Amino acid sequence: MATAPVFVKEPNDTVVMEGDTAVLMCSVVNLTESLEVRWKNNRKGTFAINRTVFKEYLEGIVEPSRYSIVGNSTVGEFNLQIKGADVTDAGQYTCEIFDMSGKIGRTISSAPEVELTVDSSPTGYYPKCRPSTLKNYYLEGDTLEVNCIFRKNHTLELQWYKSGMLLNGNRTYSSLADVTYEWPLSAADNGANVTCMANKTLQCDVGPVEVYFKPRPEMVSAIVEVIVGEPAVFKVKGAWNPAPSSYSWSVTTGNVNNSLQTRLFENGSTLTISVTQPQDDNASVSCDVSNSVGNGRAHAKLRVRPSPVHTIYTTDIRRGNELISTVTPQNDRPFSSLVIVILAVGSSMFLIAIGTVIFYFTTTSKGKKRYTCTTVQWCGLRVPNDHRPET
User: CA–CA separation, 84 vs 387, rounded Å?
Assistant: First the structure.
């Protein structure tokens, strides 16, 4: 003869503050396939069978996912859990064993009816925002449901805001409405919050939320241009959450015999090519950035230019056929052709450089030459020390 089912743990009267989670215990042993464990409420009737909550029985409940049957079913635990309890959840609850073996099912055993009391906050406490689930972080693409609860005996105008921006205009709801906003989370929502505002005066917030998303890297410079022989430095930046766990650099060129790989130095978000060579020109550089969510890639190009050719201009300073000095523009800067004209005036000799610089000298009483550089625009001539007489 089969052993009759027995309640080994029965629910008790429970008091919770509004917004808290209520749990009513119920454990049964000796269940057979024809037996069900059901939960009843004095206003909602039967609304849960075994581990299933039926929406059609949740009269007045806007958020059915708040109700669930929890516990280890293999040992007969069928505990009723109500998340974010509010005043509509208050009432009498019964856990019963129902036999489905006959043509008409019947209740064969019931635990004592218990009272769930929900202590309501003062009216001024509303509106109240309650997320359906509040995690430490969310992944991009997740949807966060936020309930905005009201306890007003009149209709109200409701607005939703995200980080201060109006989402959906004005909407009107009846009193005692628990209104749900479905918030699809993107990378741009990291650190954002949503606000429920009633009648443009009362408001509540949920957030800021942390959203994890894969890296979106980009190069600081899409094209890095250097002179051959100079180092080339590539840096990657971007948006990501959490922080990158690894950077993987790669460089490809059209030259099979290129020694580029021996000249690469990686340091996290920076890649350095120590000494560039002509065959490195047009190399493609990429960086894969990874975190716990995924990875992203950034690209850049390397341009290697030949060394510039410097032309040094010099000018001879002569007196007749005698070479007095050869001068060079400072910093190897070319200057307009200088035509040196020698004029003899009395006992003095003048050298005139046609252009922007004038050199002249006079004969001193000691027979030495005095050289003077007079700047008209810029003085770019240097007279070597061994050609500078006493003054």
Answer: 98
Residue closest to 162 by CA, chosen among 138, 186, 135, 139: 186
Do the domains 216-305 and 6-119 match in fold? yes
Q: Which CATH class is domain 123-209?
A: mainly beta
- Check whether the bond before 384 is cis (ω within 30° of 0): no
Q: What is the residue type of 246?
A: S
Within 8 A by CB and 6+ apart from 28, the residues are: 5, 6, 7, 8, 37, 76, 78, 97
Kindly give the confidence (pLDDT) of every residue in the chain, 391 residues in length, as a single tens digit, with 9 standing for 90 and above.
568 889 999 999 999 887 788 999 999 999 888 899 999 988 778 878 888 776 544 444 444 467 888 888 888 999 999 887 877 788 999 999 999 887 778 889 999 999 999 887 665 566 777 776 667 889 999 988 887 776 655 566 778 888 888 876 556 655 455 677 888 899 999 999 988 887 777 778 888 899 999 999 999 999 999 999 999 999 999 999 999 999 999 999 877 656 788 899 999 999 999 999 999 999 999 999 999 999 999 999 999 999 887 666 667 677 777 777 776 655 444 443 333 333 333 333 334 333 333 343 333 334 444 444 433 333 344 444 444 444 3
**Full-prediction pTM beyond 0.70?**
no
Q: How far apart are CA 47 and CA 30, in angstroms?
A: 23
What's at 45, amino acid-wise? G
Is 343:352 a contact under the CB 8 Å cutoff? yes
> So where are the chain's domains?
6-119, 123-209, 216-305, 315-387
The answer to whether the beta carbons of residues 230 and 263 sit under 8 Å apart is no
- AA identity, residue 317: I
Q: Find the angle CA(168)-CA(170)-CA(172) to the nearest 5 degrees.
A: 120
What CATH number should be reported for the domain whose range is 216-305? 2.60.40.10
CB atoms within 10 A of CB 54: 14
Task: Identify the bridge partners of residue 329 per DSSP, sorted by sequence position.
Answer: 381
The structure tokens listed for 174 are: 């009846």
CATH topology of domain 6-119: Immunoglobulin-like (2.60.40)
